[in-house]
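WARN retry 2 of 3 for item q-0093 after timeout on previous attempt; input resubmitted unchanged.
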Amino acid sequence: REKFLEKVWEWKDHSGGTITGQLRRLGASCDWSRERFTMDEGLSRAVLKVFVALYKQGLIYKDKRLVNWDPKLHTAISDLEVVQTEVKSHLWHFKYPVEGIADKYITVATTRPETMLGDTAVAVNPEDERYKDLIGKYAILPLVGRRIPIVGDEHADPEQGSGAVKITPAHDFNDFEVGRRHDLDIINVLDAEANIWLDDPLFGKDAGTTDWGDPESCRKAYHGLERFEARKRVIEDMEARGLVEKIDDHVHMVPYGDRGGVPVEPWLTDQWFADAATLAKPAIEAVEQGRTKFVSENWTKTYYEWMRNIQPWCVSRQLWWGHQIPAWYGPDGKVFVEESEEEAAAAAKAHYGKDVELTRDADVLDTWFSSALWPFSTLGWPDETPELERYYPTSVLITGFDIIFFWVARMMMMGIHFMGKEPFETVYIHALVRDAKGQKMSKSKGNVMDPLELVDKYGADALRFTLAAMTMPGRDVRMDESRVEGYRNFGTKLWNAARFCAMNQCLPVEDFDAASVKATLNRWIVGEVAACGREIDRALGVYRFDEAASAVYAFTRNTFCDWYVELAKPLFNGEDAAVVAETRATATWVLNQILRLLHPFMPFITEELWEQFGTGNTRLIKADWPKYEGLDDKAAADEIGWLIDLVSGIRSARSEMNVPPGAKIPMVLIGAEQGNRERLSAYGDLISWLARLETLEAVDAGTPPPAGSIQLVHREATVALPVGDVIDIVQEKARLEKEIAKEEAEAAKIDKKLSNEDFLAKAPEAVVDENKERLAEHRARIERLRAALERLEGL
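OK item q-0093 returned
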């Protein structure tokens, strides 16, 4: 054991470094000086204290119960370590003779014939008319000759199989509960390697030599056989006695150990258990009363479902690695549970009146036992530390749904019991990452994407932003490499915008007051920063990381890079020194705010740019989160909004009509109010440059548009764009009609699929969602194409 533990510690140092290296490369902002490990000295002390305290409170005890037993690794394992695997097998229907009634049999079905050697009853539903008269009578267990009762129990489903169920309390979890309800014998017929073991003292109880078998012959035939070899022999012997009614092909789930790789067995063994039902009550109340909330709320049901039906928690494992259980046994088997061997020896001396030799329990604790203490053991508990005072309880736990039972629930139970308060206010359940088609990543499918390979290729910032942008409530993330590439390009765009600012001599200005800027464009961008900041605060406040990412992306890429940078060029190049200085300072301030708001998503590029554009000597990661007050300017927002919408509308119309990018066309603004006419005059050169216009003209309402014009509505006015001289209108109509027909055909195919009930019932949820998204995209394109075609109809 000692040599093995030395090797494990060596491996921990290697693998632990690998894990923290991955986290660092992915940009996890941890305090690395406070790294903890469940087996380190401080946490080990907490584990011992908790175990001893719970034992002395009667909440930990030793009992003989069924556990998931791995016959290869020779240990109990948790449900989390059990993989349910679909197996093609058979369902054997065996006939058990009814005692005292000639030629009367009761038929039971089983997928594990070898376990029949441990049967101690046959159960039928008390409401099943076929068997009511048999309840209270006895059947003879074939091969063994054991007399077993026929009991009435709701576990037997009249609609399943024959309606009668063999009960093997030592080798089936449901049967174990039936056995407890009816006070049945519990007979173990397997050993630690899952070979047949027939030396249980109860094996021959209520059995004699019968025509159907006897205990001694049974021992000779099966004792020591490997379980699957025994299965073959049992079937052959039952067939030889004419007691196999039929054999059905049967596909069912078989539990495998995820490490041992062999089928696990429910096995009756002495283990240490925690009274989870008692510990769970206050943890359930904490969620019921809203002191701890799940996001999304539907995960609350998952939590309740397990916690309200919780079973005793098997906390012992028959392994060498882990916290060894602090229990020592005296010469007569009496147990002494203490935090140290010295304390155990003292307790034993007090009990026996003399020093005695003690033997320590060889078992170790379940990993989840020590993990359950994580929220407070990592902060120095059981000592009263400043960290414990400051950080317990914490605000948010972020984890996956698959360990709600195994970790979240147990942290809640232990935290409340030992700290008097639930360990976190919110439990955010994140999505699973799947491949681009929505399939779970698997080595066998060849669709696994290594995050560090993506980091090498696109950078950690791009990967982080992708995950944030795609994390929607209730939906798994479909990891598409093209999205990562797209967000890498977004980072490049930000970098280039920063270079543009540097080229225009934009430098941080101490004590810059964003609320005091004068130029309309600068007042507008300052207000947009504030709006973006509020939206990010709102989204993060409700854990909508996708909406927060979308807000900072739209502002950075569109508002700042595409519009402000372009619209600011005339100001940078102007002759008014005050405006130039203000615009430089404003651009720097805006870039500074982008770096702050973007930092949680893209920490590396933002920290790098902060060195050049940040204010003061503080690292960005330590800078205050920004708050924006008094920066909105409705007049500036209306004016620049009018300009942007006009240019965007013209650009969109040009694209829809296939107007060549290099072609300059006239524009006539019909029916604009006086204020907007003035805006057209003030920004005329800028609009012409951005929208590729030859001329601009504002005319009164009612003025007919020029011949060959397409029209679009902009605020109260109509924008007329004469395109008849730069496109072939007939050819363009034909192109649009062809595109519409193509899109409608695709949409119809998808709509037909989504209207098919069989498809909706059988297809994976990810596939259904993908088809719904594609249908929405096709319909949106159809709508845009039809709008473009309508514009051409009047030409």
